[in-house]
Design a protein that fits this description.
129 residues; alpha+beta; 5-stranded antiparallel sheet; two-stranded antiparallel sheet; 2 helices
Length: 129
């Protein structure tokens, strides 16, 4: 994945994105908030029958409860090739995106907005979503 690397300093911890979620420790600022958003993203994916397990996750964008982008590696018994998904969570409806489409966090946001606009248009038009 091509992606611009961003940096953030939290209590002396230099965070270089993406970050393997396993490397995030409770001593960084806003850990409880980030942990809660990560849990929301995990539970969202595990709510689908095709996601039987989360193998790994990476934080790509962190605005806490407001907006986060994660990349998840999952076990998908329905497809051996479809095991990486972007997940967007925060103060917006959660959504997953296949990595075959968006390759950068900018593209993830653009796709999210486009899909949300399509959904709104369908709802306003009385069409099935």
């Amino acid at each position: 994945m091509k992606n611009a690397i961003s940096r953030s300093v939290c209590k002396g911890f230099n965070m270089t994105y993406p970050i393997n979620y396993k490397a995030i420790t409770p001593d960084i600022d806003f850990y409880p908030e980030l942990k809660a958003v990560h849990e929301e993203a995990k539970n969202y994916l595990l709510g689908f029958k095709w996601c039987t397990e989360i193998k790994n996750s990476f934080l790509y964008t962190n605005l806490g409860n407001t907006f986060c982008i994660f990349l998840f590696e999952i076990i998908n018994p329905q497809s051996n090739e479809d095991n990486f998904l972007w997940v967007i969570v925060g103060d917006i409806p959660p959504m997953y995106l296949d990595v075959c489409g968006p390759q950068t966090t900018k593209e993830v946001v653009e796709d999210y907005i486009g899909l949300a606009e399509d959904w709104i248009s369908h709802v306003k038009g009385g069409k099935p979503c």
